[in-house]
Specification:
The chain has two domains: about 40 residues, no CATH class; about 90 residues, Beta-lactamase Inhibitory Protein, Chain:B, domain 1, CATH 3.30.1450. Helices cover about 30% and strands about 30% of the residues. It contains four helices and four strands. A four-stranded antiparallel sheet has the order 1-2-3-4, with helices on one face. The longest helix is centred in the N-terminal third of the chain and has 24 residues.
Length: about 150
């Protein structure tokens, strides 16, 4: 006897789920709840990863620029203003390519740029961060100032 998906012998649990948001239940409500739970857990993981570097640029406020350069190395770019202020920038970018078992070949670009503003006395007074999670996590790794 051949079993077909539209027969009474078919069980949705006999089909392997292709990824965590797929449904193997016979109830749409259970599927929806499972998907929402998975999305919530993933969102919390991403937020926890963000929290790893969020305070690092601000932790340099009030410190001399020389300390930042000693810790981070030479900046990728800098600009001196006529009033004595200075802006310096550090950046990072990398790409990851590969096959995903659930989608076609993909390339992800991770990038991050942080710009510090330094006053005329050489003290860091502000910063601006632009980029995505993967790039900023890499850029800020081991970059907190020593106490």
């Amino acid at each position: 006897m051949r079993l077909l998906p539209n027969t009474a012998h078919f069980s949705p649990k006999s089909v392997a789920a292709p990824w965590p948001l797929s449904c193997v239940h016979d109830s749409r409500i259970r599927c929806y709840n499972d998907r929402m739970r998975t999305i919530a857990v993933l969102a919390l993981l991403f937020l926890a990863a963000c929290a790893n570097w969020r305070g690092i640029p601000e932790s340099w406020y009030g410190r001399p620029l020389d300390d930042l350069v000693k810790n981070w190395g030479p900046p990728g770019a800098s600009h001196d203003f006529a009033d004595g202020r200075r802006m310096i920038a550090y950046g990072h970018q990398h790409q990851v390519s590969g096959f995903n078992p659930y989608a076609p070949y993909q390339t992800a670009v991770y990038e991050c740029t942080v710009t510090f503003t330094v006053d005329e006395a050489g003290i860091i007074v502000s910063s601006e961060v632009q980029g995505n999670l993967g790039g900023c996590n890499y850029l800020f790794r081991n970059k907190a100032p020593a106490p």
